From TrEMBL:
UniProt keyword Phosphoprotein, yes or no: yes
Superkingdom per UniProt: Bacteria
Keyword presence, DNA-binding: yes
PROSITE patterns documented for this protein: HTH_LYTTR, RESPONSE_REGULATORY
Entry keyword set: DNA-binding, Phosphoprotein
Organism this protein belongs to: Arcticibacterium luteifluviistationis
Gene Ontology MF, one: DNA binding
Modified residues (4-aspartylphosphate): 57
UniProt-recorded name of the protein: DNA-binding response regulator
InterPro entries from the UniProt entry: CheY-like_superfamily (IPR011006), LytR-like (IPR046947), LytTR_DNA-bd_dom (IPR007492), Sig_transdc_resp-reg_receiver (IPR001789)
Stored SMART domains: LytTR, REC
Length: 249
């Protein structure tokens, strides 16, 4: 599973510093993306960036933590609330079965709260896998639109139309995507090929599979295909005629 991208929001600077120290020293699964003492600045950041987890102080000047979340609805990150008061806010958080920390911060309570977030995150990934499975069952013989790929950091979910090419890399597979990223899937090339047999994909070489809808130019006499990302994909001699036929069909 990839690192949890987190933001710290507390108007008390020393509380942010304590939390940051605990995380950096004891919770390597968390990467701190930003730290804020001003909720307005935090709001702007969260409106323009994707994160997994927000440590959010309840009482802050300007607007409180609940008001900040209301301004962001709908949001897709987990929240661990932080408060110095055993107040109605804590009772409401407990009633809602959400995670919170009480000041002064305690390392063991922090670890328990983060473990809860990790469990929820793993559940969401598993839920996505089940959703893909149910979609496959519901569609029967119809073509599917998404691919679930195990990686070193968890699972990646791709729209199949976004895949430009796939390349065998030992027992793994590299997939190039339209947003420019490359994904290392921890599954053999053959499994990827089997998953894409009914899609517009063409095997050009022992190590390459291309999306024919992402072909820019078939270069005659050069033994390769130019893709929309400017990658030159080789065509093996014995596959040449079949590849050209598939590209022109």
């Amino acid at each position: 599973m990839s690192k949890i991208q987190a933001v710290l929001i507390d108007d008390e600077k020393h509380c942010n510093e304590t939390l940051q120290f605990f995380i950096e020293k004891h919770l390597p699964e968390i990467e701190i993306k930003a730290v804020f003492i001003d909720p307005s600045e935090a709001l702007l950041f969260l409106q323009n960036n994707t994160v997994d987890l927000v440590f959010l102080d309840v009482q802050m000047p300007g607007f409180n933590g609940f008001e900040l979340l209301a301004k962001l609805k709908p949001f897709h990150f987990e929240v661990i609330f932080i408060t110095a008061f055993d107040s109605y806010a804590i009772r409401a958080i407990k009633f809602s079965a959400l995670d919170y920390l009480q000041k002064p911060l305690d390392l063991e309570e922090l670890k328990i709260a983060v473990e809860s977030v990790v469990s929820k995150r793993a559940f969401k990934e598993k839920q996505e896998l089940f959703n893909n499975l149910l979609e496959a069952i519901a569609n029967g013989n119809q073509e599917l639109n998404r691919l679930s790929l195990p990686s070193r950091n968890g699972y990646v979910f791709l729209n199949i139309v976004d895949i430009i090419w796939c390349k065998a890399e030992g027992n793994y597979t590299i997939l190039k995507v339209r947003d420019g990223s490359q994904i290392l899937a921890t599954v053999p090339f053959k499994k990827i090929e089997d998953s894409l047999t009914l899609k517009p994909f063409v095997r050009t070489h022992n190590s390459y599979l291309i999306n024919r809808e992402q072909v820019r130019h078939l270069v005659k006499g050069k033994g390769y295909i130019l893709m929309t990302d400017d990658e030159q994909i080789p065509i093996s001699r014995y596959r040449k005629d079949t590849v050209i036929e598939q590209l022109l069909s």
